[in-house]
Amino acid sequence: MNEMVEIDKDTELMLALKWLPQPRTDYQLEKFVVGRHETEEMRYAHCVLNIRIKYNALRRSKIALEKIDFQIEQLKVKAEDMGDKLSEFKWREKVIDKEEAEGAVLGAIRELSALYKIWNTFEKKYTREEINAVQEIYWKKRLSKQAENDLLATGRVSKGNLESLSHIGMTANPQLDHVREVEQKFLEVGNISVLIAVATKDKAIDNLPCLEGVWESIPDVIQRKKYNCYGRSTAEAYNDIALQFLNDGADLLYIIEDDTFPPHDAFTRLYEHIKQGKKAVGAWYPKKQDKHEGSAIIVREGKREYLNDDGGVHEVYTLPMGCVLYTAEVFRKTTFPYFVTTDCLTQDSFFSQKLRDAGFKLYCDTSIRCKHIDRVTSKVYE
C-alpha cells in the first residue's frame, strides 16, 4: 500500500481546506433557494425558514464542538494515564471530526450571513397570516410553471404535476385555465393591457431603438408593460415571450423585432383592427434585399407570393413578426410549443400555420410601413 501523503498544516492547501467551506454560495442562496419561489411573500417565508434552520444548526454545532472537546480530553486521559492505545486512536479520530465540524460551522456562518443580507432586502416583512393569504395564487403559479417546464422538456405534463394540478382544480393545460381567469377579470373590470416584447441576442441595458416612440403612442387607458427576452434561440425566445404574456395576464401581445422600426402610431392603427374583430394583424416591412419585396406571404392563384405595399389591408398566408399584434385568444386556441424553427419553416411561418389550422385569419396592413435594418451593414430597407 502506498504511503499516505502528509500535508503540512501551514501550507496554502491546508489553509484553503480550512477557510473556503460554504456549501451554498451567496448567489445560489439568492437565486435558487429564496428567489426560486413565485411570490414575494413565499420568497420571504423561505428566507426566514432557511435562516431558522441555519441558526439552529449553528447552535447545535456549538454543543457538538464542546462535546468533541470533552471526549478528546477523556480519551487522552485514558491513553496517557492508563496506556490505552485504542483510546489514542479514538482521540486522534476525534480531532479530525473537530476540524470537519469547524469547517461546517464556518460554512454555516457564511450562509447565515448571506441569508441575513437577503432578509434585509425585503421592503416588507410579512406575517404568517399574509403568507397564508397568498397560498392559492402561489401554488397556481408554481404548478403552472412546473407544467410548462414539463412541456418544454418532454412535450407532456408529468403524472405528478397532473395530480397536483387536479388537486387545486386546474387542468393539464394550465395556460388555458389562466387565460380563462384573465378573460373573466377583463369582463368584470374592462381594462385592456398589452405586453410589448422584444427578443434580442444580449440583454438590453437601455431602451431599444426599435421601441422609440412606441410606449408613448399607446393610449393611457391601456395598461403597458415591456419585456425583453435575450440570449435564446429564436423559437425559444418567442415561446418564452408567449408564456410570459399569458402569465402576466395581458390581453394583447405586441411583438417588435429589434431590426424593425415601426412608425410611432403603429400600435394605434393595429389596435383599430383588433377592435374590429381581427385576432392577429401586422405591419408591412420589406425583406432585406435589393429587390423590393414585402416580408408577408400571400397566396394568389394557388401560388405563394410576397405582399407588396399597395396601402391596403390583406389576409396573408404568413404573417411576419417584425411588428405584429396578437390577442390572447390565438394562444388559447393553439397548443404549445407555439414557435418552432425547422429546415423549411421560420418561427413566424410555423405559428402562422398553427393559427390558420386553428381557424384564425391573419392580416397585414401595408399602409403601416416599417423600416427594416441590416444589423451587419446598417443598411436601411424601407
Using the 3D structure, state the CATH architecture of the largest domain. Answer: Alpha-Beta Complex
How far the N terminus sits from the C terminus, by CA atoms, comes to: 79 Å
Strand content: 15-25%
Q: Which overall shape is indicated by the principal axes computed on the Cα atoms?
A: elongated
Helix content: 40-55%
For the secondary structure, the number of strands is 12
User: Tally the helices: what do you get?
Assistant: 13
Low-confidence stretches: none
Structural class: alpha/beta
Classified by CATH, the class of the largest domain is Alpha Beta
What's the arrangement of strands in the largest beta sheet? 2-1-3-9-5-10-8
Largest sheet: 7 strands, mixed
* Pattern of helices and strands: HHHHHHHHEHEHEEHEEEEEHHEEE
Roughly how many Å is the radius of gyration? 30 Å
Query: Please, what is the average pLDDT?
Result: 86
Number of domains: 3
What is the CATH third-level topology name of the largest domain?
A: Spore Coat Polysaccharide Biosynthesis Protein SpsA, Chain A
Structural description of this entry:
It is a single chain. The chain is α/β, with parallel strands linked by helices. The chain folds into three domains: 12-129; 134-167; 189-381, Spore Coat Polysaccharide Biosynthesis Protein SpsA, Chain A. It has 13 helices and twelve strands. The chain has a seven-stranded mixed beta sheet. A hairpin with a 6-residue loop joins strand 11 and strand 12. The chain is elongated, with a radius of gyration of 30 Å. The protein starts with 11 loop residues before the first helix and ends with a strand.
